[in-house]
Amino acid sequence: MKKILSLLLCAAMLLTLSLTPAMADTVSATEAGFGGDVTVTLTAEDGKVTDVQIVGPGETAALGGAAMPVLAQEILEAQSPYVDAYTGATVTSNAVITAAEKAFAQAGITIEKPEEVKGEDETASADVVVIGMGASGTFAAVSAAENGASVIGIEMTNGLGGMGNAAQGMFAIDSVLQQERYGDDLGSDQQYWFEHIFDRTQYLGNGQLIRMLVRESAQTVQYVLDHGIAMYLSAQPQQVAHFGETIVYHRWNNTQPFVHMAEAIEKNNVDVRFGTHADQLNKNEDGTWNVVCTKADNGTLTVTAKAVIMASGSFAGNEEMMREALGDDVYEAAFVIGGCDGTGLQMLYANGAAKGELLTMNHGVGPRAASTPDGGAIKVATQLTMNTPILWVNRQGKRFMNEDLLKDTVEFSSAVLAQGGYAYTIVDEATVNRWADASYENTGSWIHYWDQNGMLDENGEHTIYHAPINKDDFVSDFDVLTASGDGIVAQTIEEAAAFIGCDVDTLKATIENYNSYVKAGKDDEFFKSAESLLWTVEEGPFYVTKGYNAVLGALGGVNATDKLEVLTAKDEIIPGLYATGNNLSGISVAAYGNVEGVGLSTALTTGRLAGQYAAEYAANK
Questions:
Q1: 311-339 in b/e burial notation, b at 16+ Cβ within 10 A?
Q2: What confidence tens digit (pLDDT) does each residue in 69-87 have?
Q3: Most-buried pick from 16, 22, 82, 186 (CB within 10 A)?
Q4: Is 257 part of a structural domain of the chain?
């Protein structure tokens, strides 16, 4: 009887198992994208993908950020990782496809990769060829065409504007918008801004290029307006360090400014070859140039032109060049956002261009953990701990700067870079409670960008102070930081020192000295202003955040005249070869210039002028 009952029980269990639906498997795979890791998570059941989620918190919101949900839906519908790249977000798309390949394999789903078919080889010719149709290249191509040249544009992505789509605005002085606001009393003039920018380079910059930028920036604003791209002046400077200065930051008033430039491209018959990568640049015996490219279909395109404008962007996606610019240790420590592969610069060097300074664009400090495991953004913790003038220490547990430097994103980012690429902030429980207390007059502190989400003043304008935080959000954010290794809630100074990896006595001495400065209202060590000496570090728990220098990209690489003609090591002009935007050395030196909008202003202004000069050269050749 026992044996019969046992057999019946086994049979019942087997029947139950056979009737139970197959459990869905969830797998994830990660690949490096444009601005950090991109993770693809698949849910599969019975060999079929039922859900696709893609997270890449470091990707550019307007491009990679927009691409990921579209690619997720396409992968789900195709039941395959092999989908078309999203227009304008090739790097993110490739990362998604590679990560999806890994995830499909982990889920045990085999998808045969489509066979690549090589397209036909092709030749073309024009007066001017523009390599790279980002911000500077787009302006260069339109300008060259408007000045009478036939133009071919080579663009490796499927869209115009590149990082210009993510930029918020450009520097300009004496523009029509400034004249409307200030009249004849600008408060500063071309002499001031030339000397200001040149001084920031310690006079190692290219004075001709800097003077050209200051002189021509107003005309670039007018050029932008003439092409239907609305701009406006900010109500106030975007960074606290520049409060009180004349407003020089001319911001886009269109969400997609390069839509208007696409209309100008079409109107002026510019032949843009999208999905095409320029590989080689060769000088012909008759003085013309050949640009050898790989098309999207893997066929070869060879373009012959009288003049070449190199607008290929930076080298931030080239690890070897970035290591050269930063040094190996800092490269490993800093948060480097990817970018162009440096091929454009390599082509210039191969044709005799002198190697200019390779410079990184240091812009802010933050943790690498930018989102929660479920893809939600960290709410408040890092916004406060990484962007307010609290106690900052290096890996030795010592202060290293006047924390008022946080008023300018570039300045404090560079200071952190000099400490090896990362640093730490420390606040205690009392400080967090004050940040969460709605009755506290200065609920938070100024941050280096004026507060877009905080309190409003009596005129309804955004203030530079934070609204009260939700402490539960702050604490939950630290769960994410702790899990990633970018933060800790330490109960003691000893525990905080262990997290930093520094000597306990050194950290205790740093905190003791700092507290004395706060209580006295006077910083005898690094001379921080009394208004920023607000928070002591006394009673635990202590919230410690590890912040990495953010390298948003790179610039520099070749020297040029004020007509954007590329120079050799002997300062000889290479006829018919021009460089623009981030390919140029000399406007920022040693560190990215801390003038609001100088990067985009350089791109648009040099693009506009290079197009004009290249068209004139082609007409005379």
A1: bbbbbbbbeebbeebbeeebbebbbbbbb
A2: 999 999 999 999 999 877 6
A3: 186
A4: yes
